[in-house]
Write a structure and sequence with these properties.
Layout lengths: L1 H13 L8 H15 L9 E6 L13 E4 L18 E11 L5 E7 L5 E7 L1 E2 L10 E2 L2 E6 L11 E13 L5 H37 L1 E5 L2 E4 L4 H31 L3 H11 L2
Helix pairs in contact: 1-2, 1-3, 3-4
């Protein structure tokens, strides 16, 4: 999600035709992007991605969270790279929030026109309404943590949003298009992890087969590697694993080309034909 959020901000900062982006908003996005790309743990940010709600689940068209444009003149710049919070006030309930302990998030909310839009919001605010990684929560209250299987170290929670200050990303009503960029990149990361788990599991199974004694009948013992049926099963699984790995590598390659110039995209399209 951190990489996905960085790509979203990077795309808008690189666009000279971005409508409605003020100099101040550009400053905010630049500061956030530097933190998302930083390798220094003292300054680096991670990002959440909040879409799911009770009413619609994965159907984001049923989003109930609302965003109102309420510029606050009292919000001031703290200095350095940190700029003031955004002019949009977001209130609602997110039933499933990824990376709850992140420093920022990209979330979906509907404007008064009913247009589903994407917003950038830091998790905390400082004195005077400015961005401060050590300040109070930015209109976010944790309802409860999800009890889930798997990635327990990455907290997932139900969140109540009350006047969460944010900046709109892109055009009003284009929220799904913005979030799609994050989803594409996070899915590639998830795929790489899944393929890695499969490879690790197969390595353990193959190593165990070399030392595991089994009965061969009539009091004789042999290694599991001498079992034709067992090795045939492992071979089938290994072929599937290699296929998944190659597809994952190719997907990452095509994604990389798509993020570069038009020549790279043309090259990707040409290679896909063959």
């Amino acid at each position: 999600m951190q990489d996905g959020a960085a790509r979203v901000l990077q795309t808008h900062l690189a666009s000279t035709a971005q409508p409605g982006m003020s100099d101040e908003q550009r400053l905010v996005f630049r500061a956030a992007l530097r933190r998302l790309l930083s390798r220094d743990p003292r300054t680096a940010w991670t990002s959440g991605q909040w879409m799911t709600e009770r009413t619609g689940g994965s159907d984001v068209s049923q989003t109930e969270t609302r965003a109102e444009h309420k510029p606050d003149a009292s919000e001031t710049v703290m200095g350095g790279e940190e700029a003031r919070l955004g002019p949009w006030s977001i209130s609602g309930f997110k039933w499933f929030s990824s990376a709850t302990d992140s420093q920022m998030t990209i979330l979906l909310a509907k404007t008064p026109k009913g247009a589903l839009s994407a917003f950038f919001a830091p998790m905390r605010r400082g004195v005077g309404g400015s961005v401060d990684s050590q300040g109070q929560l930015n209109g976010v209250r944790i309802q409860r943590l999800k009890d889930k299987v798997g990635t327990r170290s990455l907290p997932t929670a139900e969140l109540v949003l009350e006047d969460m200050r944010a900046w709109m990303i892109g055009e009003e009503g284009h929220g799904v298009q913005e979030v799609r960029t994050i989803l594409a990149i996070t899915r590639v990361h998830s795929t790489v992890a899944a393929v890695g788990y499969v490879g690790r599991g197969l390595s353990i199974a193959r190593a165990y087969a070399r030392v595991r004694d089994i009965s061969e009948g009539k009091g004789r013992r042999t290694k599991l590697t001498d079992s034709v049926l067992h090795m045939h099963t492992l071979s089938d699984m290994f072929v599937q694993y290699r296929g998944m790995m190659m597809l994952t590598i190719f997907t990452s390659y095509v994604l990389g080309l798509s993020e570069h110039n038009s020549d790279g995209r043309a090259m990707a399209g040409e290679r896909l034909r063959y």
